Each structure stands twice: as structure tokens, then as C-alpha cells.
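Consider the following input, taken from an annotated entry for beta-galactosidase (Vitis vinifera).
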Amino acid sequence: ATFLAPEGKGPLSLDLASMGKGQAWVNGQSIGRYWPAYLAPSTGCTTNCDYRGAYDASKCLRNCGQPAQTLYHIPRTWVHSGKNLLVLHEELGGDPSKISLLTRTGQEVCAHVSEADPPPADSWQPNLEFMSQSSQVRLTCEQGWHISMINFASFGTPRGHCGTFNPGNCHANVLSVVQQACIGQEGCAIPVSTARLGDPCPGVLKSLAIEALCSY
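Applying the prediction step yields:
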């Protein structure tokens, strides 16, 4: 089959969820073996993920009953304007009419750092106590990408994880501070300190949570 590459310079991938098992080539370049028909066990997943305690190979299982991989990366340098050639060698059978080409236009990056966390290792100085240095939230996009949006920024007792952050009972909206330091940059650093961010709840151990979007 032939396909037209989407505009832009972002990474591309083939969605081969409708296929069984085989190998694929794009313009003569092999993207390797695909095997969406091989499914993970249908049981063992849990919504309460906790890695603490003794090691157990069944901890924090996800996507039970689903294929291990459905998206297969295509380097941009392999495609060109006009028609591109896709060749599939399918061993089990599938529906090639449902194959789609995807592109990534943005990437979320998150960080959640407490006042009690040590400062970044590259800022350590000889004979200087950690207590005299501030911890930092550092955000970094892939090379060539930049921070285009701040989706969440809270200093206090934020809860949740990347993509589900929520303000806690103690909350200072520091969105403008983070935007000023990070928007348009490939990476940025924000000191986790009341001197920079204010003190919404004196005497309470606070942390800074940020969720940002990187764009190409």
C-alpha cells in the first residue's frame, strides 16, 4: 500500500492493532516485527498500584487482555513528500484496511517535588548543607521541542499523578510564575521555596506540582 505522510516534523507511528503477526517495511526500511495478536493475560491488573514493599513481578500490571504493543515508530527521515510505500508480511491474518498512521503533536511532562527533597545533584556544593539549598522542579522537552502550555501548577499540598493533578487543601496558584519561567523554553527550573512562590499555609510541608505540554 502507499500513504501520504502528515505535515509537520513530529514523530510518526503505524497503528497495527488490526493485524496479527508479521513484519513491516516503509520505503524499504524495516520497522521490525509486529505481533498485536499476542495478548497479555486477562487477569491480574489492579487500580491500586503500589510498588512499595517486597518485589513481586505481578505488581502494578496494566492493560490486561490487551496486546503488548500496537504502535510502531517510523522515523521522519524515512518518509518523504508524495507517496510512501508500506509493505507487510502477515503470518496470521488481519485487516489491513484498518491500519492508520498517527503523528504526535504534543507531549505532557510532569514533576512533583517537595520542599523536603534534596536539590538537584548537579547543584551540590562541597561542604554546604542541603538545608541551605532549595529543591527544584525541572521540566525538559525532547530536543527541538518547547514548552507551549502549562496545564497545572500548584504550590501547597497538591494531590494526584501526571494527568490527574488536583489542588489540595493548601493551594497557591503559581501558574503565572511557571508560565513566565517556562513558556517557549526547551527546559526550565523552578525553585521550590516560599521565597519564590509564597506561603499559602505556614508550618505545613509543601510541594510544587506542574504539568506542562511540549510542542514541536
